[in-house]
Design a protein that fits this description.
single chain; mainly alpha; Herpes Virus-1; 3-stranded antiparallel beta sheet
């Protein structure tokens, strides 16, 4: 939908009106046939149609283009009243700057910032409303540190609130201790399984070393026996040599 033409000051060229809603173009697009539309209007139209609403020429979303620069400039120079005119704002801006003004307009209706409050109030009156809003919060004047709403003043009890806070802290502490306990137990179990695994591996390595040592001792004994026999054979050969 476009800008309400009744908001504008002075004459508005027919070419700057949306061919669908007949209001002043908002976020405009132009068809190849040079008819212009608000983006929202033409997209809504093309959901159910495939032609221009003015001359019935075939068009597609992919054929839509931004407005010619000179038309865009003419559009931006149009003067119009702030949308908050009914609330007392007398500002008249160019279309190019109206959005920036309305975002900051003192007559804009904005929601109260207090949680739970559904009141909408003019921006210029917000501070005055916040000072008396029944949903405003403040720290307890008795020093318990609890934040209370004005509506809860008569029901606030420092001792009860602190007792509740203490119970919450105790419950939280118990939960954290339990979590830490479970985590430590899990780590110990993991380390225990790792140690058992390492012990098994070391035991296997020891057995393998014992087996290798046993084979080596057997080989040594065999070598010593062969050496003795060889020595005996040498001695025998020496005796025979002497006899000869």
């Amino acid at each position: 939908m476009g800008y309400d033409i009744d908001r504008f000051v002075g004459y508005v060229n027919e070419g700057l009106l949306c061919s669908i809603c007949r209001d002043v173009l908002e976020d405009p697009l132009q068809a190849p046939c040079e008819h212009a539309f608000c983006t929202a209007c033409i997209h809504g139209w093309l959901v159910h149609h495939s032609n221009c609403p003015e001359d019935r020429q075939m068009i597609d979303v992919s054929l839509l283009r931004p407005l010619y620069r000179y038309m865009k400039n003419d559009l931006n120079r149009l003067q119009l009243h702030c949308k908050n005119r009914e609330y007392g704002c007398e500002m008249i801006c160019s279309l190019e700057s109206i959005d920036r003004h309305e975002r900051e307009c003192e007559y804009s209706q904005i929601p109260c910032s207090n949680a739970g409050c559904t009141v909408h109030i003019e921006r210029r009156n917000l501070d005055r409303h916040l000072a008396v809003c029944e949903y405003r919060s403040r720290e307890c004047p008795n020093g318990c540190g609890y934040t209370i709403l004005s509506a809860e003043d008569t029901q606030h009890n420092c001792v009860a609130e602190l007792r509740t806070e203490l119970e919450l802290l105790r419950s939280e502490m118990i939960c954290r201790v339990e979590e830490a306990k479970h985590e430590m137990e899990s780590r110990l179990d993991s380390q225990r399984r790792h140690m058992v695994q390492k012990e098994s591996i070391l035991q296997n390595e020891i057995e393998e070393l014992k087996s290798q040592m046993s084979r080596m001792m057997s080989d040594v004994r065999s070598l010593m026996a062969a050496e003795r026999q060889h020595r005996q054979e040498l001695e025998q050969a020496e005796l025979e040599k002497r006899e000869l």
